[in-house]
Structures are given as C-alpha cells and as structure tokens.
Amino acid sequence: MSSYEFNFGQFKTAVGFYELENLIPDSGSLFIADENTSYLIPKKYLDRCVILPPGEEFKSWESIDKILTKAVDLELARDANFVGVGGGVICDMTAFAASLFMRGCSVTLIPTTLLSMADAALGGKTGVDFKGYKNLVGSFYPAKELRIAVDSLKTLSKREFLSGLAEVIKSAMIGDVELLEYIENSRDDILDLKKESLNYIINSCIKVKGRIVEEDLYEKSVRANLNLGHTFGHALESVTGFSTFSHGEGVVWGITKAMDTSLELGIVSKDYHSRILSLLKSYNYRLEADVKATDIIDAMKLDKKKKGGVVKFILQTAPGETLIREVPEDVLYSVLK
Asked: Within this chain, do residues 222 and 326 fall inside the same structural domain, yes or no?
C-alpha cells in the first residue's frame, strides 16, 4: 500500500494506511468522534475524548464549542494534537476547531467513511454549516497526518458507501480517466467492497486531490474544479434541511444538473452526457428531487464560489476537461424545471 506526503502551501500532510489495530495514534491530546466511531478509540483515551451525535445537523457552532471547551478543561496548549475519528462531518469540525484553538494547533484525521477518505479529510477545507447553509463558516487548515484503514469501510451501510462513491466518481471525471473507466467496468467488485478495488479507488482519489490542492490550496483557480456537482448539490441539501439527501446524494444530483447545464449550453457532447448519467443510474443513484427551481437558485446565491456577487458553476466539456463559468438564470430554470 502506498503512502504519500503533500505540500499544501506552508502545510505538510502525510497520508498513511494502517490496520485497524494500529489506527489510533498515541500522540493525541484530544480525540473527537461521533457515536458511530467512538468504538475505535481505546478506553485509556476516553477521558480526553469528545463524542458527538452523528449527522450533518450537528455540524454546528455548538459542536465546535464542545470541542474547544474540552480542550480548555484539559488545559491543552498550542502543542496539542486534535485527533478526529469519523466521516466528513467529524473531520471538518476537528480541523476547524484545531485551526481556532490557540490560533492553530496540530490535527490528525482518521477518516472512516469512503467520502472522507476519498475527499473530505484531505486538503484542509474545514467548517460548519451556518444559518441553514452548507459550510458557510470555516477555514483552510490541512491536517498534519491522515491515517486510513480501508477495513473500516466494512461497517458502512450501502447508502453511506454510495454517498462516498459519489466523490470518487467526481474525482474520476475531473482528473483520472482510467479511474472513471474502472468505476464503469468494476461495479460488482466495488459494491462487494473487494479490498483491491477499495485500495485502488481511494489511492486514485488521494492522488487526484493531492495534486490539485498542492497547486491551489486556497481555491483561487484549479481547486474549484473539485466542486463539480457541489453548487447544485449543496443547494439541494440546504433546501431539504440536510435531512433528505446525504452529501454524496446531493453531489450526484448536482453532477446530473451540471451535465444537463453543459448540454443546454452546447459545450458537452450528448455521448459524454449520456455516459455519465448511465454510470450514475448503474449504481442506482436517485437522480430526481422534488424541489422548486426558485428555492435551489436562491440557495445557490450564498455559494462560496460566488465572486463579485455572481455564482460560478463548475461544468465539464469532456472527461478531464472542466471549466468555471457563469450560467444565465433562464438556463438554470430550464435545467431545474
């Protein structure tokens, strides 16, 4: 199994693969988990552990307050190491709290879902939802270390696994044509959680994202491509109260709308558009949502990729060919009708 070290601006992130029994580091000053992942933390560390309820609805200031309060109660200092054990929500909040405590302490992330291994834990995006909007408050603060145990994916529900696979498909579309073909041709092995397949797709995603973030940590240019499907998807999550669609399900719906937008604008071939929709259907993703176009458009107006008051959309013209552009509102209404 490979290991990696990335240079993200002034930050260095080491990525390593471990067996479950060696997953938790001894260097942790404060451990953050949710009720689904706390079993991974040895009992000897539970007195310096914050265990949060699971789910997007708890990705909030209140949870950050609990983490920081525990750090103060433990009399930690700037040399502390916050260790987050969980999915994307836990990883995002652990790194956000670490970026705030004493103006920045060390953070180690232990992603336990496919979504967090393939995307959320790497690259330093942190944050919480605020005023009903996804990740509206946050920071760029890469972890010092990522520790991955592929075997932890065996505990995921099929829905949670497919949610993470959405980010794998996105990464393949923007940065790895061979991975895209593998996902198309290896459906059964992937859904059967064959370890060789999981290792391949996770390593491929780490290389795609690591390469992009090394070039553009603060999302001034090419890193925005990683948001393919997210402008539409985050809006869907927001208008449905973060309870109907998981993040990955929102991304899948967003990818279909981004591809529909490209088709409407005449910048993508019908063949590639059909190829992506066929791929998503082959994994039995839900591609429709009962939402009003006006609600989605209103929610997108607070998208973080907005510049000068204008929302920018991440669109594709071909595999590996991604662009950022404005989209006329009449096109959006047509796509969302």
From this structure: yes
What is the spatial distance between Cα 82 and Cα 162, in angstroms, rounded to a whole number? 28
What's residue 157's pLDDT?
96
Q: Looking at the structure, do residues 118 and 166 belong to the same domain, yes or no?
A: no
Q: Do 176 and 311 have their domain in common?
A: yes
Packing angle between helix 247-265 and helix 158-175, nearest 10 degrees? 40
Q: Rounded to a whole number, what is the distance in angstroms from the first to the last CA of the chain?
A: 46
pLDDT digits (tens, 9 = 90+) for 139-170: 999 999 999 999 999 999 999 999 999 999 99
The CATH number of residue 29's host domain is 3.40.50.1970
pTM score of the predicted model: 0.94
- Domain match, 120 and 226 both: no
Q: Residues 110-148, buried b or exposed e (16+ Cβ, 10 A)?
A: bbbbbbbbbbbbbbbbbbbbeeebbbbebebbbbbbbbb
Q: Report helix, strand or coil for 144.
A: coil
- C-alpha to C-alpha distance for 212 and 320, rounded to whole angstroms: 13
Span 183-209, average pLDDT = 98
Domain span at 311: 158-186+214-336
pLDDT in tens, 68-119: 999 999 999 999 999 999 999 999 999 999 999 999 999 999 999 999 999 9
